[in-house]
Design brief:
7-stranded parallel sheet; 15% strand; alpha/beta; 7 strands; Rossmann fold; single chain
Length: 251
Amino acid sequence: MSANLFSLDGKVALVTGGNVGLGQAIAVALAGAGADIVSTSRRAAPETKQAVEALGRRFLSVEADLSSTEPISGIVEHALAFGGLDILVNNAGIIRRADSVDFTESDWDAVIDTNLKSVFFLAQAAGRHMIAQGHGKIINVASMLSFQGGIRVPSYTASKSGLAGLTRLLANEWAANGVNVNAIAPGYMATDNTTLLREDAKRNAEILGRIPAGRWGEASDIGGAAVFLASRASDYVHGAILPVDGGWLAR
């Protein structure tokens, strides 16, 4: 297979939550393959900007809070003014932990609004543009809890299970228009969202004991999957949910 199938030269990628963690790693990986990056986050992204520009690519930071749909049209307009919109990575997400008998409505709504509602409406806004131009790549960031139930994270599990279904639905609707919609399902990654798990000695040991690779994933482990799903190499891949999990689901 020719290496240029993975080239993203001349493409513009919009990555939500691109200031830290998985989003930052995805943005840097896409830039390494040639894409210019538009990153959204609640705060500025100076580290991501530095890493992307060090690779010779352009970078735009858009400060936006995706707990509501209000900023979505502006985000897309910023991307189009920057140079286009070829790739969308829906990475931004939050998590709330509590026993289901104690889980609050506010924690439910906060997670669903950010992880599912805003993802759909940003995909919708990007999809309209991509359908009109005849091509585009949308990559949703799912979870192991798109496949499993988990414990003490009811709204997160619901959002990520819903995101898996949404990925398939959009693929069904948009594949014939040249738009690929797929998802990456990270396994247990060493990010801010898993700090409490890693600090809990019992849970940490249980999790590591099940991962065939024998370690927590690093943010950089996601990059290759993102480049594949963003590139021409995945042109006939639609509605897939690609686990990057150290073998967790195979166990």
